[in-house]
Amino acid sequence: MEDSSSNVFQLEVKQGQPTLVPPADETTKGLYFLSNLDQNIAVLVRTIYCFKSEEKGNESAAEVIKEALSKILVHYYPYAGRLTISPEMKLAVDCTSEGALFVEAEADCDLEELGDITKPDPETLKKLVYEIPGARNILEIPPLVAQVTKFKCGGFVLGLCMNHCMLDGIGAMEFVNSWGEIARGLPLKSPPFMDRTILKSRDPPKPEFEHHEFVDIKDISNTDELYSQGMQYKTFCFDSEKLQRIKSSALEDQTLSHCTTFEALSAFVWRARTEALNLNPNQQTKLLFAVDIRPRFDPPLPDTYFGNAIVLTNSMSNAGDIVQNQLSFTVKLVQEAVKLVTESYVRSAIDYFEVTRDRPSLTATLLITTWSKLSFHTTDFGWGEPLLSGPVVLPEKEVILFLSHGKERKDINVLLGLPPPAMKTFEQLVQI
C-alpha cells in the first residue's frame, strides 16, 4: 500500500504541437447514434501504457502508432468525428472524419523514475495525457486524444484520453488491442459491430423496474464537511490469500452457500468505507457497479459490440445494517444486485432513461468500477506487452477501482480516495 501524496518526484514533459490524424480511407459521414446506455457516462477516461523493449528503442514509436491510428480509424470511424447534440437533445457523434488528436512529447528522465503507476499520482501522470487548453465541456474535446511520450531510456508511454460514451472497458480494450495488431502489420482480427440501434429504446418506452440507481439519497451524515478536508488517494493490494480469507469470512455463518471474489471484495470494501465515513446508522447508502450485458441477452450481443454494453445495477441499505451485520449480509445485497440484471431489466433501464433523462445520483453512494478482468496487459504495438498500464485519475470521489495486479493477475489492487481521517480508519478496517 502506498500513499500517492508522498511522491516528491517532479516529471518534466515537453509536449509538441497537436496534430489531427484522419482515417486512412473514406469513411461513413453523418450522425452516429449513441444508445441510452452511452448517454449517462460521458466522462473522460485517461489511461497510460508504458512500453520498453531491450532490442528496440523508441525512435519510431510515435510514427508507427500514428500510422496505425489512421488505419484503425477506418474501422472505428466515429473516433475521427466530434461529439454533438442530436435533434432529440441527446449526445451523438458527428462523423466528420476530421480525425483523432495526436501529440508527440519528450520526458526528461527514464521510465523507471515514474515508479509504480498502479498507484496513481494524478499530478505526475496527467502530464502523459494531453489536455486541450481552454476546453469548457466534452463537446470541445475530440472523443480520442493520444500522446506518445519518449523517455531517455528508450522507453515510451502511450497516454489516452477517451470519452466513456464511446465505449465500455471491454470495447476500449478491443479497440486498443486492434490498434496494436495493425501497428504490428497484422490484419484486424475482429472488426467492430457498429450498429448501436440494437439497444434503442422501445416505442413506446416501457420501464418495468424501479431503477434505484437513479434515486437521490438525502445526506443526513453531513459528509460534505468531511470531504471539505480534501482527498487522499491510496491503493490497497488484496493478494489471493487475503481474497480467500474475505470469502471464507463471508461464508462462515453459513447464510450463503457460495460467493464470487468480486461479490466478497465489493461487500468488504463497501462495509469498510461506510464505517470509515462514519455514516449515520439511519443513512441510506447505495452501491452501484457495472454489469456486462453481452452474455445476458438472448441471443447474446456480439462480443465486438462497439459501445457501452454495460448497465449499472444497484443495492441499497441503511449504513447501520451494513456495519453491524455479518459480512454475509452485505455480500447477499451484492449478489441480489448481480441477479437483477436480465435482458428485461436492461431494456427497462434503456426505456427509463428515455422517459426521465435522469442521471444516477452519487450522494451517499459507492460506485465500483472493475478493471481487473480487462486485458490491459495484452496491448502490443510491436514493443511487446506494457511494463505497466492503468488509470491516471479517478473520475469522481465516490468511485473505487478494482485493478488486477501481479504476474498471475490473481491479486487485486483497490484504488480509492477518502478524506484523510476516513482513510486512516479504512486502512485499519481492511487489515485482514
Automatic annotation (TrEMBL):
InterPro entries for this protein: CAT-like_dom_sf, Plant_Fungal_Acyltransferase
Catalysed reactions, semicolon-separated: (2R)-3-(3,4-dihydroxyphenyl)lactate + (E)-caffeoyl-CoA = (R)-rosmarinate + CoA
EC numbers for this chain: 2.3.1.140
UniProt keyword Transferase, yes or no: yes
Enzyme class: transferase
MF GO annotations: rosmarinate synthase activity
Keywords, alphabetical: Acyltransferase, Transferase
Matches recorded under Pfam families: Transferase
Source superkingdom: Eukaryota
Gene3D superfamilies associated with the record: Chloramphenicol acetyltransferase-like domain
Family, similarity comment: Belongs to the plant acyltransferase family.
Name of protein: Rosmarinate synthase
Organism listed in the record: Dorcoceras hygrometricum
